[in-house]
Amino acid sequence: MLEAMRIQALDYLYNQLKMSESDPPDDLEKWYLKVKAEFPKKIFPFLVESSTQTDLVYIIQKEKNENYANLMVEDMRSEIEFALPFVKPTGSQSPQVGPVIKRSYDTKKGAGPSSKILNTTIKKFKEIKESNAPWSSYFKDIDSILHLENIKLTDGSLCNWKSKGYNSMLECVVNEIGPKKEKIIVTVKDSSERLPGDVTSYLDYLMTDILAGDRYLTGKIHAVRSNCPLCGKQDTMIFPNALKGAGINLTNVDRSGRFPGMDIANAWKSFSLCADCADLLYIYKNHRLKKGGPKNDTRPFTAPIAGETALIVPYCTNDPKSRFEIWEQTEQYINNAQDDVEYAEDMLLEILSESQGLLNLTFVWCTIGQSIENVSGIITDVPPSRLRTLSEFNDNAKKWKHPVFPEKLLDNLKADLNLSAFRSLFYRPGGKKAPNATRRLAELKRLIAASVYHDRCFSSKSQNRLWGEILITGQWWYLDVIERGEAYGLLNQGKSNKGKGDYLTTAGWIRHWAWWLYYFKQLGVMEMEKEFYEPEWDVLKPYFGPESGINTSEKAYSFLLGVLYGKLLEIQGSRGVNVGANALTWLKRLRLRGSDLPELYTKIREKLLAYEAEKSSAIRLLIGEIGKLGISLGDPIELSQTQTNYYLLLGQSMTKKILKKEEK
């Protein structure tokens, strides 16, 4: 995974710099190392914070043949942008790393950085100039300019900063700029009138002491000379905080075996990497994954996978030209997505699956902010051939028709490569009371997704967890029905009469689950039942078979009892009975087991007799079918809580189809 990120950064960097119109070289790494060594100024904008958002630049410069400094101001221009590399200090109270300082202003707090920070900055410059580092002479030059007693401000006045009560010239400049809220950089030209980014020794300082030092080191653990476990470079300095410093925090992940391209023998080093690899990963995180699109709201290579946003890491062929075609296709698609960002994200896998240079994909569920962190799940090595197979399978699945399936699949519950339907399938109604973001539920979604993407059958443990989550979700749907006090949602799919489109009800939810369970079985990730219950009443026969999964008499009993129970709810609703306080309570919020079904059957029969409902021939035939099943099964009926309530709900959702209202 890290190697794929590194390769993406190399490709991105080459595309951005575009130093040649010819095809990319076969050895992009060799090109990168050459540019980094010979043209560091070209690489630096990708390793430091961008100055493009800066409005004004205040420049301190020694006046020629005079003993004072001059303060000049100019608009930020592309010509000087690269000469002002800003590196954010390591802490909120840390000194500035060099003479490129971001100035702020607050109406209450005044100008910043604070006097304390600027004092420690001057102290740091002094320490550097007194060291024997290759850049000491540069800092000596800058320090001498900052210690001139007078500075001519932008209004032409000559200011003695000490007499005015300032502790340093920097503090004087930061404050004398006044109450300006524009984004401002304060910098210093050396005695040769060069901006910091034009000075080779200063760039060496940033590259060696700051980027590879402060950014990639941690605490008292020093860099050591060893082999880089990512690029394989031998006898080089590797840095213990390289990954985190690059903005990729994977410390909460079990490392062994999780990251293709990493040397497992070196996993104990917490991903110590060489500076060149760390810089590429920094470029990947901060530039390759930068939001784009017409509204700058689309992050490349992220999409909802199994209902939650994930980072998609493509691992591609060694041929740069083939890789560049993939990047061009995806970037064009993102840039052309005008309004429907969700649609663009959903289509990303479709595009990647057709890419010729793609070897496999890795999905990483994480948060992407200042860092890639809080990794909660990873699926590795998803081949594009599997995605193409799934795409064809999904196209065929759209044609499936069966009485227990939804009359029309809702858009957010259709099968796609992203498995986006998982969000709605496992959605628990109930507002803030319903726990929709549990770690256990997220883990299950990813286990199912891994089986689908790897063409692997669910383990028995995963299958039990799946049924358990279906039951829990069903209980929340049933609770919602009880609180509403009406049975419409148990018996009907949601259809809007106001042109707002169909919506999900409990009946629609359970019928979508019937479709998806059949989908998993047809896909081969769940085992398909081999034998199925065959009812005697002809009207019932279309509702059985592999689509409903009713392969035992116990399941058939629960399903048919659900149909009968649904009829009772329909009758009570038509008579104005408060079903929320009556028949709806009989299912004990979906906590029944098979052994509870005979008692439920008795209650339903008693009520139906009271309502004279058994005058209907269809109801009598259904009761006859249930009665024969009950006699053959005896007491108790052996059926788990999960299966009992699933088939009760599925039966209720079929009531209006099986027991249609008879003409009077």
Give a written overview of the molecule.
- This is CRISPR-associated protein Cas8 domain-containing.
- It holds the Pfam family Cas_TM1802.
- InterPro entries: CRISPR-assoc_prot_Cas8b (IPR013389).
- The chain has 664 residues and is an alpha+beta fold.
- Among the domains are: 56-205, no CATH class; 411-658, no CATH class.
- 43% of the residues lie in helices and 12% in strands.
- It has 23 helices and 14 strands.
- It has a 7-stranded mixed sheet with strand order 4-3-7-1-2-5-6. It has a 4-stranded antiparallel sheet with strand order 11-12-13-14, with helices on both faces. The chain has a 3-stranded antiparallel sheet with strand order 8-9-10.
- Helix 11 packs antiparallel against helix 12 (341-353).
- The relative contact order is 0.07.
Main sheet specs: 7 strands, mixed
Strand order of the largest sheet: 4-3-7-1-2-5-6
Query: Are there runs of 5+ residues with pLDDT below 50, and where?
Result: 253-269
- How many β-strand stretches? 14
Q: What distance lies between the first and last C-alpha atoms, to the nearest angstrom?
A: 68 Å
